[in-house]
Amino acid sequence: MRKLTIVFFDAGGGHRNAAEALKSTLEAHPGRWNVQLLNLQEQLDSIDVIRRATGIRIQDGYNLILRKGWTRPTPQLLVLLRGLVRLYHGRVVSVLERYWRRTRPTGVVGHSAI
Description:
The protein has helices at residues 14-27, 40-44, 49-54, 58-68, 74-87, 89-103; strands at 2-8, 33-39, 107-109. It is 57% helix and 15% strand.
């Protein structure tokens, strides 16, 4: 049986639903796939600089912005987030490398909006 990890963020609303739908579809064929969902935020909590500074997880901050309709500064925030991704790239790689070594999936499916 092949082991597949589907990676998602709980930011925006549809990512978890899409991951769960894909998992359900794959599991409709018993014995072919062992599917695990991975909320990437949970793996990256230890290095979430926004959480450290504000106490709010980065995905929760994004969801708050959407709920409140504070979307006008979104382009500027994306520039900031891209910069953080570049700055923390090495740490993210280390965290994920440890995770993949521990779980050893056959394949990984994910989506990135950044």
